User: Fold PilN domain-containing protein from Dyella jejuensis.
Amino acid sequence: MNSATQTLRPQLERARRAWRGSPLPGFFAWWGSELRALLPVRWQAFFSGGNVWYLLRHQDGQWHVRRSAQAEAIAPWSDALDAPGQQALLNAAVAGVDPQDLRLALCLQPDAVLRRRLLLPEAARDNLRQIGAFEMDRQTPFRPDQVYYDLRELPGPAPAGRMAAELVAVSRSAVDGHLERLRLAGIAIDAVDLCDNNARLGVNLLPPEMARVHRDPRRRLNLALIAGAVLLLLLCLGQWLHNRQDALATMQTQVDDMRGDAQKIAELRKQLEDSAGAAGFLARRKTDSVAIVDVLQDLTARIPDDTWLERFTVDSGGRVGMQGQSAKAASLIDALQGSKLLTGANFQGVIQRDPATNKERFFMDAQVRNPASGKPAASSSAGTTR
Assistant:
């Protein structure tokens, strides 16, 4: 586990430096402060989380503690006080701060440390602590194992391809006494730093293996909340897709219903057109055709009383066929000449006398006239009479 942590540490440090060097921390800090300002006063302290640094300073056998960026010291105590008493005074000084957010730093005097400004290649940004060990022999009279050191990147312009950094080192003998006193008092610290007025300089001279390990119980809760948020987001996306599919299925059903209605309307329209065409056709046929009753009435009025018909037919072309007996069959042609309904009357075959009735048997045909134009017209009706 330790080897894995050592392997991942450069990548984590690189990610931290990239994050700190980006404008995102400042933006999120401003955004968070603006959001907190919108909350009630009681809630603002609850949402103002984050690391809270307290600085420990030892001077003339006295320990002084104050909050970073504040000048007033809180509850000083002597080295002669027993461990429980020192812890009680420290706890009283940091009362009101969440233990998970509390960070303690041993603050050294400026004259106790050695500071050197360096110009390094930009590629050294990912391994500043290792570069500090390499530069220790050239920049200081100490070896890396004789000092506590750290290397921090300096803001401001630098030559192209280079970065400005500051090497901060302090002799181990100047710090080990303070660390031992804190260890005996049961006080664990997170950093050894240099006091810059009333705040930290921003380095940590304490080796990583000596720093206090924080176990954040809220991390599990935060991970659970993140997982819950991701799950809710996925559920929302799934519900959104389901709603779209449901709406699409509903629209498809409506389209299918309207398509079926359109097909029924088209079929009804076709039936209506067919019915209208058939009705028009029948009306035209009725207008253009002569009623069989009228033809029979005309024949009844024109043929003489000594003539009767045994058979009467009208085909679809308006051709009239008449078969019967008459005392003078030859006179029938003259009788039909003045008809307004029939034209072209002629005998078919030979006129013969019937021995039983002593009448002349005949068969003749004619053409029905068109009542509108006077020309021969077709008729779809056919009839026979005796």
